Amino acid sequence: MISATDLKLTFGKGTPLENPALRGMSLTVNQGEFVTVIGSNGAGKSTFLNALAGEVMVDSGKIVVDNQDVTRLPTHKRANRVARVFQDPLAGTCENLSIEENLALAIKRGQRRGLTSAVKKQYMKQFSDSLSSLNLGLENRLGDKMGLLSGGQRQAVSLLMASLTPSSILLLDEHTAALDPKTARFVLELTEHIIATQQLTALMVTHSMKQALEVGNRTVMLHQGQVVFDIAGKERDGLEVKDLLGLFEKQRGLQVDDDSLLLG
Amino acid sequence: MLSEIAFYGALETGLIYGLVAFGIYISFRVLDFPDLTVDGSFPLGAAVAAMLIMAGWNPWLATGMAIVAGMAAGAVTALLNVKLNILNLLASILTMIALYSVNLRIMGRPNVALLGEDTVLTPWYELGLEFHQVPVLLFVIVALVVLVLLWRFMKSETGLAMRATGANPRMARAQGIATGAMIVLGVALSNGLVGLAGALFAQSQGAADVTMGVGVIVIGLASLIGGEAVLTPSTVVRALFACIIGAIVYRLAIAFALNADALGLQAQDLNLITAVLVTLAIVLPGVRTKLTHRFSRKQA
């Protein structure tokens, strides 16, 4: 379980560019939930994910993961509980390391690293098994440099890396947004498959309302650094994009002016 | 042409600068941390080793302390960057400047001669080899041992974490790697190797001098870049061999340039030649790619 309580964060405090990104954000994600997070540009989606991961420190509020207060812990000390896939397919892997070296980095996520060989023989079966589940033929290319792979392949491997060791929460930050539609669909299906088979708890930020409703079992909408609505279960089933818009306008008395949300 | 003694002399210095190139490979290539501390940690290693040998220490122990001193200097640079958020290049310049005073303090005077002292080379002269071949033999062994150790390290869990830190720090943090600690470890390791090079240089030249570090960074970089131009560094082990080969090629090129009477070059032209060679080493790989492109297009 992961819970964020009353998170507040302002960028550039005391400058003309002062920008309150989180204004009292609270959200609790229970074990096994797959939450999709939606919101227009500047709603605080990425900042919220960065705050959960430890990349940015909140000004106030509290973040608890599995009963441990991690609010003040830096990224690398949360990594044993928090797994992450970035939006940029190049960000989640190291291009000048081989595929097996990238996987070897991920299999030790959040654990002590010693002086024994990083790519161990006993990992090989797990590496090639999980790679062959992608049906990309990567299991035969373990020694190839990551940089030789396409963006979609790299994002698929990032996803594998994030699920190689157990985590309390998997953070997905618009991880299909930079891919072409066909590859995006492939990566999204892979995401659903991995989350379902490993029963992961996940938080997925998306720019598409349609995707937010199709995937996962709970949807949260952010606006101006706060949760404006949070739907799950029966209430969410059968909901369509236009219903979501209606819900948003009713809650806020606002028109959604971000076209990409509607078109995505 | 190059005399035999000049040839072995170039090999000897080249092997020592190969160690410097290892250090620069770690900072510039693995960690992407432009570190100029080496101009100070090279004479630091020389000064520490020379003073301890004069004080009657075992030369290998003295050399070991030179490594420790170099590591400490590197750690200072890295901590200035990681903890105090000083730009990496500037942090290294600060340490380098400070080391000038430290080195003068250690030696108590601008230079120390090791004439008549036992050095790491002394026992090797009894093997019956030619006088000028002895340092080459010992330094080949040292360079290869360091190469194997570094290669093993870069393939270890910690070494891989260090490589990830330099290549993609955001990803490294997300994998639970303490990137700050990796930078401190890496820059310390790098300068430890440079301290070792300084200690060996002092022992093979028979003296430590406070100015002997001037331009070490440029020579090290020249070796690294030159080696990469000769041997494409697609793997860690190739990159490490490139460091040694680059350093030797560089010293041989310098020796040829200075020995070729027709060119009319003299010892004081050394820095000018260095600058020209570094420029060539940087530019030539690009030219080579262009030429092969043109060539393959014609064939097609």
From TrEMBL, chain A:
Keyword ATP-binding: yes
Source species: Marinobacter persicus
Subcellular location: Cell membrane
Pfam entry (one): ABC_tran
SUPFAM superfamilies linked: P-loop containing nucleoside triphosphate hydrolases
GO molecular function (one): ATP hydrolysis activity
Source organism superkingdom: Bacteria
Alphabetized InterPro entries for the sequence: AAA+_ATPase, ABC_transporter-like_ATP-bd, ABC_transporter-like_CS, ABC_transporter_ATP-bind, P-loop_NTPase
Topological type in the membrane: Peripheral membrane protein
UniProt KW Ribonucleoprotein keyword: no
All residue ranges annotated as the ABC transporter domain in the record: 2-249
First-listed, main subcellular location of the protein, grouped into a coarse class: membrane
PANTHER family xrefs: NITRATE ABC TRANSPORTER ATP-BINDING PROTEIN (PTHR42788:SF7), TAURINE IMPORT ATP-BINDING PROTEIN-RELATED (PTHR42788)
UniProt name for this protein: Putative ABC transport system ATP-binding protein
GO CC terms in record: plasma membrane
Recorded family membership: Belongs to the ABC transporter superfamily.
From TrEMBL, chain B:
InterPro entries: ABC_transp_permease
Organism: Marinobacter persicus
GO cellular component: plasma membrane
Transmembrane segments: 6-28, 63-82, 89-108, 134-153, 174-201, 207-227, 239-258, 270-287
Protein name: Putative ABC transport system permease protein
Family: Belongs to the binding-protein-dependent transport system permease family. AraH/RbsC subfamily.
PANTHER family: ABC TRANSPORTER PERMEASE PROTEIN YPHD-RELATED-RELATED, BRANCHED-CHAIN AMINO ACID TRANSPORT SYSTEM, PERMEASE PROTEIN
Record carries keyword Transmembrane: yes
One Pfam short name: BPD_transp_2
Subcellular localization(s) per the UniProt record: Cell inner membrane
Keywords: Cell membrane, Membrane, Transmembrane, Transmembrane helix
Keyword Disulfide bond: no
Topological category with respect to the lipid bilayer: Multi-pass membrane protein
Gene Ontology MF terms in the entry: transmembrane transporter activity
